[in-house]
Structure to design on (405 residues):
């Protein structure tokens, strides 16, 4: 009998979904060839990477085993970098943010993290990146410092003073930790699909959380915001959606507009001592939801026209199920307001918004729970105030427009 070429032993290195057909042409012996073919077909169906005496055979490659093997492989998606990255120092956090990859979970230990914290790394819809920590994991930025560019963008040598900055970094989830003692709290730039859940932001110079540069389809929920606008009271918003049209030159990255559309503000506690609006909804943004929040208006300053819990200049927002109160100190005109600024390109700014099931206690100071600035400007897309809204201690009543049952 003629000697056969021996089969090399294959070592399993990794699993994948593989479809394989093996055709064996043996030097002699048809039955043995068919048996070998069946064994290889079954084995290739379970594995995708092999090491043989002829080297490593990877998906889609081929090797000589002493007979011919025709293989078609379909490997699974390579595993993402889903490892947990534990950090306990500012330097470790900066490195983790700089090197973040889809699927990673960055976990903060308790403690104070002092420095500039920014990431430009994107997650994906299927593998978002997360940064989480307990409430006593505190991020502080003593900036700003360095020469600022004309428009805010991560720039070597420049620290904007933001407590945490996502720039061009979609699909992140931020949860649990605290940001304080920074120029701004959390800034989300060109980073749609960001989730902020259960964070605390307080004692910041300007606004607490800003979704900017078309960071659409994002959400902030279950979070607590107090003591904003310590240096710039008129810019001390709790949550800021979009940008004023005067800033679209820098932040209008969607056809010249900052389209922070469909952002949700849910179940947060905002105030006291939020120096400007609890939520400022800017022109050119559409379709957001502001629901289930508690607004404590103590300490609102009235500077830069900041004299209400919410100012809506966006289009098609639903504002429902919120509870707002006001007591001294502060300057308080109305609970909710809308305005209709003109922009280029043009939008129905301040129109098509709906208020329902909101409870407002104006402390005997505010005029209307819901003040609509213009009916005529929104005649084609009117604002709607439902009778399910309630007002107490309002000098002028629930609203200045007819109520919808």
């Amino acid at each position: 009998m003629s000697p056969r070429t021996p089969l090399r032993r294959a070592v399993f290195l990794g699993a994948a979904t593989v479809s394989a057909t093996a055709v064996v042409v043996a030097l002699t012996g048809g039955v043995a060839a068919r048996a070998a073919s069946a064994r290889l077909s079954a084995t290739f169906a379970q594995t995708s990477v092999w090491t043989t005496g002829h080297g490593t055979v990877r998906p889609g490659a081929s090797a000589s085993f002493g007979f011919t093997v025709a293989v078609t492989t379909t490997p699974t998606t390579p595993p993402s970098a889903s490892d947990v990255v534990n950090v306990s120092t500012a330097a470790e956090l900066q490195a983790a943010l700089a090197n973040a990859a889809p699927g990673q979970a960055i976990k903060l230990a308790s403690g104070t993290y002092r420095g500039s914290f920014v990431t430009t790394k994107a997650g994906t819809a299927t593998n978002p990146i997360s940064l989480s920590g307990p409430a006593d994991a505190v991020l502080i930025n003593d900036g700003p410092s360095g020469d600022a560019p004309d428009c805010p963008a991560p720039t070597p040598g420049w620290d904007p003073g933001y407590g945490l900055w996502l720039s061009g970094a979609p699909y992140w989830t931020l949860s649990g930790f605290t940001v304080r003692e920074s120029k701004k709290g959390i800034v989300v730039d060109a980073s749609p699909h960001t989730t902020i859940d259960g964070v605390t932001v307080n004692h910041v110079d300007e606004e607490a959380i800003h979704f900017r540069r078309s960071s659409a389809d994002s959400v902030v929920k279950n979070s607590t915001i107090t003591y904003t606008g310590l240096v710039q009271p008129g810019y001390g918003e709790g949550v800021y959606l979009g940008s004023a049209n005067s800033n679209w030159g820098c932040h209008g990255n969607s056809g010249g507009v900052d389209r922070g559309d469909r952002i949700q503000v849910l179940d947060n506690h905002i105030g006291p001592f939020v120096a400007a609006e609890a939520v400022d909804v800017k022109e050119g943004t559409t379709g957001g939801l502001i629901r289930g929040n508690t607004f404590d208006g103590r300490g609102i300053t009235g500077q830069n026209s900041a004299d209400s819990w919410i100012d809506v200049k966006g289009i098609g927002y639903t504002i429902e199920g919120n509870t707002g109160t006001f007591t001294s100190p502060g300057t308080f005109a109305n609970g909710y307001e809308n305005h209709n600024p003109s922009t280029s390109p043009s939008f129905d700014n301040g129109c098509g918004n709906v208020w329902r099931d909101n409870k407002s206690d104006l402390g005997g100071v505010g005029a209307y729970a819901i003040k609509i600035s213009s009916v005529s400007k929104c005649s084609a897309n009117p604002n709607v105030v439902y009778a399910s809204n309630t007002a107490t201690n309002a000098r002028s009543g629930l609203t200045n427009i007819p109520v919808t049952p």
About this structure: The chain has three domains: 11-73, 81-191+199-204, 205-405. Confidence is low (pLDDT under 50) at residues 1-57, 67-76.
